[in-house]
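Example 9 (inverse folding). The structure is encoded as follows.
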């Protein structure tokens, strides 16, 4: 028997998923799977947005600093 890491339900069948934040594997029952997937996707989207924003900020600072030196 396997225990769902979200709700604690015990069952013979569980879905194994990787979390977006800590990149760890967790067991998720069928009842919790849809909600978990939505939350996980939102976290992944936020990570990607933050990474893109950081790159843009870095490029803007670099351009600003190069113009400032000239």
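The amino acid assigned to each position is listed next.
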């Amino acid at each position: 028997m396997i225990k769902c890491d979200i709700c604690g339900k015990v069952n013979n069948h569980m879905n194994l998923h990787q979390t977006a934040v800590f990149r760890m594997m967790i067991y998720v029952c069928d009842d919790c799977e849809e909600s978990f997937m939505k939350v996980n996707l939102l976290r992944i989207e936020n990570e990607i947005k933050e990474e893109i924003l950081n790159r843009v900020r870095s490029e803007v600072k670099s351009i600003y600093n190069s113009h400032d030196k000239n």
